[in-house]
Amino acid sequence: MTFNVTADAYDRFMGRFSEPLAARFAELAQVQAGQRALDVGCGPGGLTAQLVDRLGADAVSAVDPSASFVAAVRVRLPGVDVRSAVAERLPFPDDSFDLALAQLVVHFMADPVSGLSEMTRVTRPGGLVAACVWDHAGGSGPHATFWRAVHDIDPHVRDESELAGAREGHLAELCEAARLTDIEPMSLTVTVRFATLDDWWEPFTLGVGPAGAYVARLDEAQRDCLRSRCVRLLPPPPFEIAASAWCVRARA
Ligand SMILES: C[S@@+](CC[C@H](N)C(=O)[O-])C[C@H]1O[C@@H](n2cnc3c(N)ncnc32)[C@H](O)[C@@H]1O
């Protein structure tokens, strides 16, 4: 899926979940000073910033196919080697990095096994490859309430649950297929607070990701109906949403 949206729209919709996740994911990846790291599918740079904090900008590279996100990372994180590229064709020689990470990206890759294989190729033997994807299939992703409301209205709409890595164990299967070793499946949960219903709903209207693309296809009456259904399913504001991601840590 393409992300032809501004970094600001992404931050408001997904960044509020992916930034706290990035701090936890960098811990899980055991990032240590002196390493060289690659952030695959960096978006506007939430995880990249965590890597820069730990390693310094000179030791961090990042790729993403979205022109607006690549431009945002160049401005936000000067000194990072950020390039326009997809995981399936990484523009780096073999064994370039000590670790390669993909946060919330495997499910958007056209070919996840080939993307993970490329991450393995550019990581030195014994280096670390890690990935995570929201638990969309288990109903504990950040947009579970949204998709429940969508299905209450139209049970035939395809949500994100069938995407690669979004069900328990699937990331590990993909890593095995990509010939990674010492595969350790794990999970992470983050909690985000919403002050008002509009604080929660308005970002869905920005066209970001599969949920945003779905809302963009609705007319005004359909949007109002969906918003009302969501309001009935959500707790009264202020409320917190917990979101869990399946993670995998493995060796190249
Ligand atoms: C949900 S965002 C995650 C961004 C960032 N990693 C984060 O955690 O906030 C998914 C990102 O994957 C990128 N993407 C989509 N297909 C990709 C591919 N084949 N290879 C690398 N990145 C891809 C998108 O452009 C987008 O920036």
UniProtKB/TrEMBL annotation:
Keywords: Methyltransferase, Transferase. CDD domains: AdoMet_MTases. The keyword Protein transport does not apply. GO terms for biological process: methylation. GO terms for molecular function: S-adenosylmethionine-dependent methyltransferase activity. Residues 38-130 form the Methyltransferase type domain. InterPro entries: Methyltransf_11, Methyltransf_Superfamily, SAM-dependent_MTases_sf. This is Methyltransferase domain-containing protein. It comes from Micromonospora inositola.
